From TrEMBL:
Pfam families associated with the record: MmgE_PrpD_N
GO CC annotation terms, alphabetical: mitochondrion
InterPro entries: MmgE/PrpD_sf, MmgE/PrpD_sf_1, MmgE_PrpD, MmgE_PrpD_N
Family matches, as SUPFAM superfamilies: 2-methylcitrate dehydratase PrpD (SSF103378)
GO biological process: one example: defense response
Annotated protein name in UniProt: IRG1 decarboxylase
The family this protein is said to belong to: Belongs to the PrpD family.
GO molecular function, one term: aconitate decarboxylase activity
Annotated MmgE/PrpD N-terminal domain residues: 5-148
UniProt-listed PANTHER family: 2-METHYLCITRATE DEHYDRATASE-RELATED, CIS-ACONITATE DECARBOXYLASE
């Protein structure tokens, strides 16, 4: 099936698939996203999301960008950091219209921080996870008949 094929391709990806060009572009995308996200932490919407998220706590926590003294469960940290990135609307884009890094990077970083100390992932593992997330998003866009119509709607 299409879904089975898709899952096999994604499951089969490993660090050996990352070319030097992909690694360099990924690092640039990550730096851009972190920069936009840090700037986004000063927006009103980000402040509101942080205030809302303070009601959640967990033994496992991840960093809120720009707030080193405040941590949240990985799910909410990814949400807050994703809102920070998107609130500036300067994050990277893809055609048809989507912002891949703003959705993927906050989740990857939040999850990587949640790993126990003895199982921390390497930088190469983080790059692989980031690229798998980007690949999944790109393939889902290609599968979507709705995504093909986005440019005609605007």
């Amino acid at each position: 099936t299409i879904t089975g094929n898709f899952a096999s391709v994604i499951h089969g990806l490993n660090a050996n698939h990352l070319t030097d060009q992909v690694i360099q572009r990924s690092k640039r995308m990550i730096l851009d996203t972190l920069g936009v996200g840090l700037l986004g932490t000063s927006t009103e919407i980000c402040h509101k999301v942080i205030q809302y998220s303070k009601i959640y706590s967990s033994d496992i926590s991840s960093t809120i960008w720009g707030h080193l003294d405040f941590r949240l469960p990985p799910l909410y940290a990814a949400f807050v950091n994703g809102v920070a990135v998107h609130s500036m609307d300067f994050d990277d884009t893809w055609h048809p219209a989507t912002h891949p890094s703003g959705a993927v990077l906050p989740a990857v970083i939040a999850l990587s921080e949640a790993f126990p100390q003895k199982k921390k992932i390497s930088g190469l593992d983080l790059l692989l996870a980031f690229n798998v997330g980007i690949e999944v998003q790109g393939r889902l866009l290609r599968f979507s008949s709705e995504a093909r119509n986005i440019p005609k709607r605007y």
